[in-house]
Amino acid sequence: MATTLTVELEVPDPEAAAATYEAAFGLGDRLGFRAEQGPSSGFRGFMLSLVVSQPSTVDSLIGTALEAGFTTLDPAKKSLWGYGGIVQAPDGTIWKISCSKKKDVAPFTRDIDTVVLLLGVEDVKASKRFYVDHGLTVAKSFGGKYAEFACPGSPITLAMYPRKAAAKEAGISPEGTGSHRLVITGTTGTFTDPDGFVWQATA
């Protein structure tokens, strides 16, 4: 069964965060905010990813993010898989903006094709089994390295890969304690997964 999910970030000031993110990315209602509930330090164990069509879109979104107060963790550049960079929001959330192309092939837009919640987990296979047992359907899987779930029509796509790999990609230490400062709302029910990510049932 496919699932529909949304995410809410726990931030010091939800209203201010909403304005910052709208200036940075223009995501509208694809992202929610709530007051932070507990302390957090270090890597929070997840990254949000904006997948776009070409490098000029990557550069534009990173540019407006930096203007809105984000900081650079990994500057945008070409790689084996395309083009992209990583930035960190004032609230500490890490964002990856990328595309599969290395050069523009169409007129410039700021269109965002997909928003992906990338969970950094201790054991991809175990977490994948947990989510399948809770009603999600695997769309892509590469052993213990990566898994993605079917979320047709959902504003957010769910994927996971090893926590250490996620931290390495962001260029930070994998160590972290306290709250993930993230609440996932979905059609799958209310539960906490093996890595401590909290899900709430869609009202």
What topology does this entry show?
Layout: E1 5-11, H1 14-24, E2 32-35, E3 40-42, E4 46-51, H2 55-67, E5 71-79, E6 82-88, E7 94-99, E8 114-121, H3 124-133, E9 138-142, E10 146-149, E11 157-162, H4 163-170, E12 176-178, E13 182-186, E14 191-192, E15 198-201
Parallel strand pairs: 1-2, 4-7, 8-11, 13-15
Antiparallel strand pairs: 1-13, 3-12, 4-8, 5-6, 6-7, 9-10, 10-11, 14-15
Question: How would you characterize this protein structure?
Answer:
- This protein is an alpha/beta fold.
- It has one domain: Roll (2,3-Dihydroxybiphenyl 1,2-Dioxygenase, domain 1), CATH 3.10.180.10.
- 21% of the residues lie in helices and 39% in strands.
- It has helices spanning 14-24, 55-67, 124-133, 163-170, and strands at 5-11, 32-35, 40-42, 46-51, 71-79, 82-88, 94-99, 114-121, 138-142, 146-149, 157-162, 176-178, 182-186, 191-192, 198-201.
- The longest helix has 13 residues, at 55-67.
- It is globular, with a radius of gyration of 16 Å.
- InterPro entries: Glyas_Bleomycin-R_OHBP_Dase.
- This is Glyoxalase.
